[in-house]
Amino acid sequence: DEKTLKANRAKEKEAFFICKEKIFKHKLNMKLIEAEYLFDGNKLLFYFTSEDRIDFRDLVKELASIFRTRIELRQIGVRDETKMCGGIGICGRKLCCSTFLENFHPVSIKMAKDQNLSLNPVKISGICGRLMCCLKYEEDCYVEIREKLPDIGDIVLTPDGKGEVLAVNVLREQIKVAVKMKDKDEKEAIFYNSSDIKIKKKCNKHCSERHDNIV
Predict the structure, then answer these.
(1) Distance of alpha carbon 129 from alpha carbon 14, whole angstroms
(2) Mean pLDDT over the full length of the chain
(3) Global pTM?
(4) Which of 144, 139, 145, 179 is nearest to 159 (CA)?
(5) DSSP symbols for 108-162
(6) In the CATH hierarchy, which fold is given to the domain comprising 2-76?
(7) What is the domain partition of the chain in residue ranges?
(8) pLDDT digits (tens, 9 = 90+) for 106-150
């Protein structure tokens, strides 16, 4: 079995370069990613990416005549491409998708918002260009904690008086509040533990009571 696998790996390298030459010959707008022989050698798969629908019937016929086995060309997405090619993430570790992730789960920009992350696409996207899979890992934890905390713009009661929420640190469960101190004319931004405040008024997109008119 081990000898068969090694032989297949060697044949896959040769098949990959031959297929690339034929793609160029047929002038097809596709990027070849990987060639894979099934263990018994009765099928040869070629994985590719393309932004277009490709008519590769002539290519398949030519490849079948060269390799004398069944040929399958399988179009994949950029995430699958990255999973196959591997790489190093911005965390400095090998990519999750190429090491332990078996399936891709939906990832949304809301997850980045829930975790108070920068919404700069460069900072929250993987090398595939899509949102990083790891945004999903702690989402349930963040959602559970967020439900107990006020939102930015909410009016809250603090030990120092009424104020408006300016920022929320979810993991530390700390709230930054603009509070007008009794002995001062200007408001101060103070951090409080979530257990030390009470929500007085939830603020939505129509809320008119902002931190510049707290009394």
Answers:
(1) 30
(2) 89
(3) 0.70
(4) 179
(5) -HHHHHHTT----HHHHB-TTSSBPGGGGTTHHHHHHHHTTSPPTT-EEEETTEE
(6) GMP Synthetase; Chain A, domain 3 (3.30.300)
(7) 2-76, 89-144, 155-213
(8) 999 999 988 888 899 999 999 999 999 999 998 999 999 988 899
Q: State the Cα–Cα distance between residues 112 and 18, nearest whole angstrom.
A: 43
Q: At residue 111, what are phi and psi to the nearest 5 degrees?
A: -65, -40
107-116 residues labelled b (16+ CB within 10 A) or e (exposed): beeebbebbe
Instruction: Identify the CA nearest to 32 among candidates 17, 47, 44.
Output: 47
Structure tokens that stand for 76 in this block: 């994949």
Any residues with CB less than 8 A from the CB of 165 and at least 6 apart, and which? 150, 151, 152, 153, 154, 155, 156, 175, 176, 177
Q: Quick one: how far is CA 173 from the chain centroid?
A: 25
The per-residue b/e assignment along 189-207, b for 16 or more CB within 10 angstroms, e otherwise, is ebebebeebeeeeebeeee
Predicted local distance difference test score (pLDDT) of residue 92:
93
